[in-house]
């Protein structure tokens, strides 16, 4: 599957609805008790971009973006305004936001991750599409310098250190990131209500796993 390293218009995605989806099978026994089975280890995000359209210019931007992606064919970047940082949305990322690994004296590459929850069953989300220029890293709380101490693969979300962190060193990172997604339709139903106003009732977007 092809991935276009371009972001859906963020001013339109700001007004979108959506969020995480999980798959759970629930069987109710004759006693009334339940058995629950988790089908997906990781959640997947779904969005509807139709709510973000405010003008005919927005309509045109979405149509152009949809055509260039060939509908569902090519994936792209999406800014989830409710969850796009290594920290809460109204805070500023820092190099100690998320633990991404521990040094062993040999490993020099670490995958960016974001952990949700802390007490009962924390879930670790793999981050594959960090935004260029936003990744911060620290080793045992000491800030590292991108370009000198580490580099970032922005297509995979992998941090590579110039020298492997020493055994037991705590590796942390902070970042801004996008979600890899695709259109979940090959058809846009455009309604032009007025010369300067219109809407597309439904523009389904779904996260893809790379």
Walk me through what this model shows.
With 210 residues, the protein is mainly beta. It has two domains: 1-84 and 179-210, no CATH class; 85-177, no CATH class. The protein contains two helices and 19 strands. It has a six-stranded mixed beta sheet, with no helix packed on it. Strands 7-15-11-12 form a four-stranded antiparallel beta sheet, with no helix packed on it. A hairpin with a 5-residue loop joins strand 3 and strand 4. The mean pLDDT is 94.
Short description:
By secondary structure, this protein is mostly beta strands. The chain is 8% helix and 38% strand. The strands form 6 sheets. A 6-stranded mixed sheet has the order 1-6-16-19-5-2, with no helix packed on it. The chain has a 4-stranded antiparallel sheet with strand order 7-15-11-12, with no helix packed on it. The chain has a 3-stranded antiparallel sheet with strand order 8-14-13, with no helix packed on it.
Topology:
Elements: E1 3-7, H1 10-13, E2 17-21, E3 24-28, E4 34-38, E5 44-48, H2 56-68, E6 75-78, E7 98-102, E8 109-111, E9 113-116, E10 123-126, E11 136-139, E12 142-143, E13 150-153, E14 158-161, E15 170-174, E16 179-183, E17 191-194, E18 197-199, E19 204-207
Parallel strand pairs: 1-6
Antiparallel strand pairs: 2-5, 3-4, 5-19, 6-16, 7-15, 8-14, 9-10, 11-12, 11-15, 13-14, 16-19, 17-18
Q: How many strands appear in the DSSP assignment? A: 19
Strand order in the sheet with the most strands: 1-6-16-19-5-2
> Structural class given helices, strands, pairing?
mainly beta
Which strand-content bin applies to the residues?
Answer: 35-45%
Q: Mind summarizing the main beta sheet?
A: 6 strands, mixed
SSE string, helix = H, strand = E?
EHEEEEHEEEEEEEEEEEEEE
Roughly how many Å is the radius of gyration? 20 Å
Shape: globular
Q: Give start-end ranges of low-pLDDT stretches.
A: none
> In percent, how helical is the residue content?
under 10%
Q: What is the overall number of helices? A: 2
Count of folded domains: 2
Mean of pLDDT = 94
- Distance from first to last alpha carbon: 9 Å
């Amino acid at each position: 599957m092809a991935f276009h390293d371009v972001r859906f218009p963020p001013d339109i995605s700001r007004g979108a609805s959506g969020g995480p989806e999980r798959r759970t099978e629930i069987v109710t026994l004759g006693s009334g008790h339940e058995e629950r089975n988790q089908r997906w280890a990781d959640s997947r995000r779904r969005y509807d971009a139709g709510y973000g359209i405010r003008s005919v210019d927005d309509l045109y931007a979405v149509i152009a973006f949809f055509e260039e992606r060939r509908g569902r064919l090519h994936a792209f970047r999406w800014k989830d305004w409710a969850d796009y940082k290594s920290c809460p949305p109204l805070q500023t990322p820092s190099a100690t936001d998320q633990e991404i690994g521990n040094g062993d004296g040999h490993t020099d590459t670490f995958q960016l991750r974001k952990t949700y929850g802390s007490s009962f069953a924390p879930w670790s989300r793999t981050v594959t599409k960090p935004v260029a220029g936003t990744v911060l890293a620290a080793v045992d709380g000491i800030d590292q310098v991108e370009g000198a101490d580490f580099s970032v693969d922005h297509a995979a979300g992998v941090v590579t250190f110039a020298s492997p962190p020493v055994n037991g060193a705590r590796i942390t990172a902070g970042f801004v990131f996008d979600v890899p997604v695709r259109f979940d339709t090959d058809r846009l139903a455009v309604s032009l209500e007025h010369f300067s106003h219109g809407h597309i009732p439904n523009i389904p977007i779904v996260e893809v796993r790379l």
